[in-house]
Design brief:
Number of helices: 7
Largest sheet: 17 strands, mixed
Strand content: 35-45%
Length: 444
């Protein structure tokens, strides 16, 4: 999810293996294709000691197209449902007396407004707090001693969230044995939402907030890692068929995962794409794809649904995919999606697309992983041309949930690597407790 975050004046340790069920935001709903593209457009404006977060939702473009989880905040702890997002940094939730905060959710989850007065451990963060001094980038007169440290996030579609920072306990499920968890907590600073605009004020797909897993110092993971509560490593496994999956903080011991370096960009998770082939036929890469020392960069973002490519790459991909069915011409739906009526096995009728990354890391995308079913015998390709640009004006290549599904993906910010392996996301993984050295099984 892409956002502009601004502060304005207004080791596994004992926590290895946190358990969190994850759900998909649109699960059970059939979203229109234009709504799906709009969701991604909005997203490009806005993911603990082995901990497990229960994931909800699924990556299907025609259902939720977003994953969310439940965390607990405050003392006594209260439940909050938040979007899991690797494309942004800040954890924020809607707070009491919020202006334009949704009261109900079309997702069927209960919404809760955080009230600092109801928590015995909540403390406001002032402008003289070291956290605020390190993150605030506005005029000095906008944030002085005696004032609350405010935040403001504006997303690409014009919607926004704003409020002030508070410090309080976050409670997660700590893996304490095979398929067993106990509660653990750590103190973090997060945004207390006072005003929402645009889509964030709508009840249709409302959640309590967003949990960013980006690399900056304001992220929940970075704060907990700095306090030696957890390692700065997390993994997700998104189940494309059943929805939900696994989201874990800490070192994954099993399965073994091959990795590739994260490129030197602290804003997003960028990795170096070396080549693409469609059933062995090469696709020429443009030189304008985010040029990190002449490396072709791909942004990995769990909060985006589809995969996006510069025009030159997209056109070649479409040409080679469509060549597999010369007598079955696709139709263009809503001026953006190439769709087929097809009664056979998608995997047998269309080619495999292979993405080759630095360190010989392969992302093999089968047809059923880049097509999505819109109705009986009707399928659309989940590749789009970018229309997304970096600050330098270059077209961006971006991989979302669709091609990341059915893979265990690990983000190791301590060693600056990302890796993955094909995996059954409805099964279990093994994670290491850095404090005890024990290895525990973590289930979906």
């Amino acid at each position: 999810m892409w956002s502009s975050e601004k502060m304005t004046g207004k080791s596994c340790s004992s926590f290895c293996g946190k358990d969190s069920s994850v759900r998909h935001k649109f699960a059970g709903d059939k979203a229109s294709l234009s709504a799906l593209k709009s969701h991604d457009t909005q997203r490009h404006r806005r993911i603990l000691a082995a901990a497990e977060l229960p994931l909800g939702g699924d990556g299907s473009p025609t259902s939720a197209a977003l994953y969310y989880t439940k965390i607990q905040l405050g003392s006594p702890p209260k439940d909050f449902y938040v979007q899991v997002d690797t494309g942004s940094d800040l954890l924020w939730v809607n707070c009491i007396e919020c202006h334009n905060c949704p009261k109900t959710s079309g997702l069927g989850v209960p919404l809760t407004l955080f009230d600092p007065k109801d928590s015995s451990t909540a403390k406001p963060v002032g402008c003289d707090d070291p956290f605020c001094k390190a993150t605030f980038d506005g005029p000095p007169d906008d944030c002085k001693a005696g004032m609350l440290c405010a935040y403001s996030v504006t997303y690409g579609d014009g919607s926004s969230t704003s409020g002030f920072f508070v410090s309080d306990n976050v409670t997660l499920a700590q893996v304490s044995g095979d398929r067993q968890t106990t509660s653990m907590s750590g103190n973090v600073i997060f945004g207390c939402g006072a005003k929402q605009t645009g889509g964030l004020s709508s009840s249709e797909q409302a959640l309590d907030g967003i949990l960013g897993f980006g690399q900056s110092n304001i992220s929940l993971l970075t704060q907990l890692a700095s306090a030696k509560v957890v390692k700065k490593t997390f993994s997700h496994c998104l189940d494309s068929s059943k929805g939900g999956g696994i989201f874990a903080i800490g070192e994954v011991v099993e399965p073994k995962i091959k990795t590739t370096p994260i490129l030197d960009d602290k804003t997003h998770f960028n990795i170096a794409l070396e080549s693409i082939d469609v059933n062995g036929e090469s696709v020429k890469l443009p030189t304008s794809i985010l040029d990190f020392g002449k490396k072709q960069a791909v942004v990995v973002d769990s909060g985006t649904t589809l995969a996006y490519f510069p025009d030159e790459t997209y056109n070649q991909l479409m040409e080679k995919i469509m060549a597999a069915q010369p007598n079955n011409k696709p139709v263009t739906v809503q001026n953006m999606f190439k769709c087929y009526e097809y009664t056979g096995n998608i995997d047998e009728g269309f080619p495999v697309v292979n993405f080759h990354f630095e360190n010989s890391l392969l992302l093999k995308v089968l047809p059923h992983q880049y097509f999505f079913k819109v109705e009986e015998n009707a399928y659309c390709i989940g590749f789009q041309n970018t229309n997304i640009q970096s600050k330098s004006g270059d077209e961006i290549t971006l991989f979302g949930d669709l091609v990341l599904s059915d893979k265990l993906v690990t983000y190791d910010m301590e060693n600056q690597t990302i890796g993955w392996t094909d995996y059954d996301c409805s099964s279990s993984i093994k994670v290491k407790d850095e404090n005890s050295g024990n290895v525990y099984e973590l289930h979906a």
